[in-house]
Prior knowledge:
The chain has one domain (about 5-215): CNF1/YfiH-like putative cysteine hydrolases (4-Layer Sandwich), CATH 3.60.140. It has a six-stranded mixed β-sheet with strand order 1-2-12-7-3-5. A six-stranded mixed β-sheet has the order 4-6-9-8-10-11. Strand 10 (about 155), helix 5 and strand 11 (about 185-190) form a beta-alpha-beta unit. The chain is globular, with a radius of gyration of 16 Å. Helix content is about 25%, strand content about 25%. By secondary structure, the chain is α/β, with parallel strands linked by helices.
Amino acid sequence: xxxxxEQFPALNAIGLCRHAFTRRVPGVDVSSDKAEVLRRxxxxxxxxxxxxxxxxxxxxxxEQVHGNRIAIVKRGDNRTDHRQxxxxxxxITDQPNVALGVHVxxxxxxxxxxxxxxxxxxxHSGKKGTALAIVPNAISEMRRHFGSNPxxxxxxxxxxxxxxxxxxxxxxxxVSQCRAAGVMEIHDSGVCTACDLxxxxxxxxxxxxxxxxxxxxxxxxxxxxEGAVDAS
Length: 232
C-alpha cells in the first residue's frame, strides 16, 4: 500500500521537529476547483498530521500568492485551531507544538530548520517566488526574529517540477540562493512531480485539474524531541 506521506532523512536526523510531505491520495476526484479539492483532501491531510504526532497542534498556512512575504507565528498564536496568513507564501516560528503548512502541486516546499534557536520555517517557492527570492527572505527573517545563523540552518527541498517538464530549474536556483545566503547544509529530494503522477500531483502535467500535496513541519517541545516518526 502506498504511503500517505514521505519524510526526509535530513530532517529526521535533527530530532527537533515533526514533518511530512503528503502524496497523491487514491480515489479522490481532483477535477474541481482548488477550494473544493482541498476540502476533499482534508481528511487525508488531517490523518497525516495525526500520524506524525501533530494532530492536536494548531495548523498555520499561507494564502500563497506567489510573492515573497513571510508570516511569523508568535507566542499566543497557538490558541487558534487553524489560521491562514493572507498575502504570504512562507511562515516561520520558534514556538513549539504548532504545525506550519503549505500546499504544492509543482512548486517547491522548502523546509528550513534552525537546530540552535530552535526555530523552523516553511516556504512555497515556484517560478515567481524563486525570482522574488522568497527563501533568502525567509532566512533573513529567521535571523532578524530568532537570531538564526545561516551556517546553522538545515534546508530541505521537496519534490517539485523540473526540466524537461518545466522550462526552468527553479529548484537549482533555490539551492544557489541558499548557498549565497550562507547556508551550508542543503538537501534536495531531486524528485520531479510531473514524472510520477501515481505518487504526486502536478499542475502542469494535469493541466490545472489536480490536487495538492501538503508540506508540514512543526517544532517539538524539548520534552517531546525524542526519536523520529515512521512514515508508514
